Amino acid sequence: VLSEEAIAYAGLDWEVVKWPVVATDMQGDKPETAETDEYVAVVRRSDNKILGIVGPNYEPVQNWDAFKFLDSLAGPENLVRYHTAGSLAGGKRIWLLAEIMGLTIEPIPGDITQPYLLLSNGHDGKHELQVLWTSVRVVCQNTLNLALGQAKADKKFSVRHTGDPKAKLEQARQILGMATKKGEKYGAIANYLAQQQMGDQVFASFLEELVPDPELPIKAFRAEATRAKIKELYETGAGSDIPGVLGTRWGALQAVTAFTSHFRQTRGAGDDAEKAREKRLESVWFGTGDALNQKAMDLLVTA
Q: Most buried of 62, 191, 250, 300 (most Cβ within 10 A)?
């Protein structure tokens, strides 16, 4: 499967264009309009939905151009395999998940984590075309990111949008090389955490540091509920019954990633389960869910 097929399967075979921004006054007998040259709207041509308001010099990257960037790795050499693709926030952000072939992480027999490249691009003017390293624990689909760049906080690697095929190929291979090294590094971290036992008191202290009580006592119930849920997942969550997981720092990390991936509350979703899953996915890849995962890993590795 290459980018054209992935786009079609995911329903992302649509184009974005720039339209002028026009204000309309409907209060008078005859509507009046005013147009600005300071902003333009990014519009999805298939249904005329506005995905963002941007400056006039903004140049959108079409979905097929964004996805095609990794085709050189998903082609005959089969260095990566396109897995799934989709969009967030009604198309404001699109993504493609590509499995890194020949690289799996198994710190405990039967507990496999598969690494991926996650390519994302925004049509709202807020998110550039970028790639990050992410992993999925097979037994329960927990998600965790790892930095691709050199800086500890640089979890994402921005992609230069260029028409030069050789430059694209070189950068794609550079990204894959960094991702492979990061996967090997994460494998070493996973092996270390799996060998570290964690008593009840140490785990309780870890939770208190991970999710401390807020300054306002009225909000303390949420922190308590979060710690209780992570503790429950640590003791009885999916994968905790694999021999060698329970009672380790690896098990503690998986309890946190299970919480952020599947159970963390989301704002603005209401009773819409599908919307809640989408918001949780966006958070665990790009937002506060990812931040909590990173904090947990830092605490468990450095303690």
A: 250
pLDDT digits (tens, 9 = 90+) for 251-271: 999 999 999 999 998 877 677
Q: What is the pLDDT of residues 111-127, one digit of tens each?
A: 999 999 999 999 999 88
User: Can you give the chain as a three-state secondary structure string?
Assistant: CCHHHHHHHHCCCCCEEEEEEEEEECCCCCCEEEEEEEEEEEEECCCCEEEEEECCCCCCCCHHHHHHCCHHHHCCCCCEEEEEEEEEHHHCEEEEEEEECCCCEEEECCEEEEEEEEEEEECCCCCCCEEEEEEEECCCCEEEEECCCCCCCCCEEECCCCCCHHHHHHHHHHHHHHHHHHHHHHHHHHHHHHHCECCHHHHHHHHHHHCCCCCCHHHHHHHHHHHHHHHHHHHHCCCCCCCCCCCEHHHHHHHHHHHHHHHCCCCCCCCCHHHHHHHHHHHHHHCHHHHHHHHHHHHHHHC
Whether 154 has a pLDDT exceeding 60, the answer reads no
> How big is the chain, counted in residues?
303
